[in-house]
Write a structure and sequence with these properties.
The protein is of the alpha+beta class. The chain contains 6 helices and 10 strands.
Length: 220
């Protein structure tokens, strides 16, 4: 009897820990459910824009409008394209047949997309573009749904301040240079993501400190 109890306990333990396969249908349903949610109030404020940073995410570093985030051991790269927003110029959407998943997103007259690369050792590369901003990340299989949901919520929450942006890149400014970079651009085929994320990693254990002179406020 005792052996049977132990066997059943182990069976429940391993069954409960099993990570289910995420299908295209699951992802489509998740996108629909997330985009239907009410946009969260911004809790991070910067020069010209603000956004909602989901609970469980920490802001590791920020260089101009490039942000490095960390959640559940996965790093996320966020780029807020204030120039494209100011000129209302949307990025062309391209499709890759080799992707694990691809879907266009269109809401409030703004187009976007979500791309998920084929997994390598249960690690997925995700790229989400919406609301004149983009998030890229490598996430573990068990974090995939969590990553998609919170990335969409963050991008949808971005609010731009036209008055401030006009002083930065409008006619009132003679010269403005926007620097955009991707932490993944030339590193996808060789090297480890953690090897080059270290350059930007100044994250403390409490997810509360950041060395950035442009950070105006951390809560509202």
């Amino acid at each position: 009897m005792k052996k049977l109890v132990v066997f059943l306990a182990l069976l429940i333990l391993f069954t409960g820990c099993e990570i289910k396969e995420v299908t295209n249908e699951d992802i489509n349903k998740l996108i629909e459910e997330t985009t239907s949610l009410e946009t969260q109030r911004a809790n991070r404020n910067f020069s010209g824009y603000k956004y909602y940073l989901p609970q469980g995410f920490g802001l590791v570093n920020k260089k101009e409008n490039n942000h490095v985030l960390l959640s559940n051991g996965d790093y996320y790269y966020l780029y807020v394209d204030i120039v494209s927003y100011f000129h209302k110029k949307q990025e062309p959407i391209t499709y890759d047949n080799e992707l694990y998943f691809f879907k266009k997103i269109s809401y409030n007259n703004v187009d976007g997309y979500i791309k998920i690369g084929n997994p390598v050792n249960d690690i997925y590369y995700i790229e989400l573009s919406y609301n004149y901003s983009k998030i890229e990340a490598y996430v573990k299989k068990e974090n995939l749904e969590y990553a998609i949901k919170n990335s969409i919520r963050l991008l949808a929450s971005i609010q731009y301040n036209d008055i401030i942006l006009d002083t930065l890149i409008g006619e009132k400014t003679l010269d403005y240079k926007e620097e955009a970079y991707s932490l993944f651009e030339s590193k996808r085929e060789d090297g480890n993501f953690l090897d080059y994320i270290e350059e930007y990693d100044v994250y403390d254990e409490e997810n509360e400190k950041i060395k950035d002179e442009d950070l105006l406020d951390t809560s509202e």
